[in-house]
Amino acid sequence: MREFSRRWNLTGLFSACRIQYTGLLTIRGAWTEAEQEIQALRRHVEQVQPRLVPIAQIRLADLRRRQGRWEEAEELLAKSGPHLLAVLGRAQLAHDRGEMSAAAELAEEYLRRVPRPTAPNECPGSTFWPGHASGKARWTRPGLPSPS
User: Fold this and answer.
1) I need a surface site. Which of 25, 28, 54, 130 has the fewest CB within 10 A?
2) Facing residues of 129 across strands?
3) Of 80, 106, 133, which closes a domain?
4) Residue 13's pLDDT is what?
């Protein structure tokens, strides 16, 4: 992909692929490799697509959150500003800390800011259902029916 993107001058495609790859490495638990790739991604987008720098920071924040380095994750998310994925990252961080009401509020903010889906699993990243019938927030998987 790197060579193809370089040959055809498709920096946007390469950046998009690299962003997804860093997420995959993080989810798989390949944290050393994920961190190296995130740092390379950041250097790359600083030069060719500065508007994507917050996404690199959000990816690093997600890695830090999974590593239990919550203060660093919080700082990185703060530097990412109002980016939609930073709001979702802050919700995940609050959840990990056991701050369920803050997690629900942030998840609701995230859901308010994305286009209104016709079904819950159509909302990008929707794995969190604030305010479900019991009055408590509930996590679910995309593709499952909404909690009642």
Assistant:
1) 28
2) 138
3) 80
4) 66
